[in-house]
Amino acid sequence: MKKIKVLNLYAGIGGNRKLWDDEKVEVTAVEINQDIAGVYKSFFPHDEVIVTDAHQYLLDHFKEFDFIWSSPPCPTHSKLCFSQPVKRYADMTFYQEVLLLKSWFKGKWVVENVIPYYEYLIKPTFILGRHPFWSNFNVEKKEFKNIDVSRSTAEELSEYLGMPIPRIKARLLLRNCVEPKMGKHIFDSAYKKETQKLLSESPTSQTSPNGDFSKEKEQYYVAMPKFQFSLQRGVQLKW
To answer: Residue 71 needs a FRET pair 20 to 30 A away by CA distance; which of 1, 18, 61, 211 works?
Structure first.
């Protein structure tokens, strides 16, 4: 089976992506901050990392991918807005992306944000922990360990997430991460039916009385040649 082409938007340092299987995915990550993108690249050297505006990149390239994960900025939607003296318009970026993907994208997609201070304009598909998600596939409810990210140190967040401490803005970047186990649970849910179908069609699947299909799975995922990276300067910066 060919690798799943994944677009990881507003990638940050890649908490959601940490536990995705490199044998199964080919990831393009988009992050507008070059320093943060550099941290992501150091964590995931085999991913293509593009430094540009994720919102525009989605519009220009959404047809090129099999799976899209988007985590648009959330500060103007958060309940913390109640405590902020200066009021701002809510950024409608993520609703625009939900409508675009829902209407025109043929693959699997998920958009993540925060529980807002207002009533949802578009009801989320599911909620896990402190995150509502909009998607075109079902995800089973699952409990994940939670800590108070607002009060935790960078060291505590690093241990909780299983992520290295970034060399810059460590506490902020770790606070903004999606819990890696949650990211894996969601990604696996997107392809659960396909995986079950492949296993059921395996010629040796009927010869595994203990239900261990690990060997059968291996025949469906063939490692691709190592990806070659280059740094391109211009409108977009790629690694």
So the answer is: 1
pTM: 0.79
Phi, psi of 49 (to 5 degrees): -115, 125
Contact 198, 205 (CB under 8 A): no
User: What string of DSSP letters covers 76-125?
Assistant: TTBGGGGG-SS--PPP-HHHHHHHHHHHH--SEEEEE---BSS--SS--S
- For the chain, the structural domain boundaries read 4-146+182-190
Tokens representing 175 are 């606070």
Domain range 4-146+182-190, CATH class:
alpha beta
pLDDT for residue 158: 81
What are the pLDDT digits (tens) for 165-213? 888 888 888 878 889 999 999 999 999 877 666 556 655 545 444 444 3
Contact indicator for 177, 164 with CB cutoff of 8 Å:
no
Q: If phi over 0 gives left and psi between -120 and 50 gives alpha, with beta otherwise, what is residue 12?
A: left
DSSP conformational letter for 20 = S
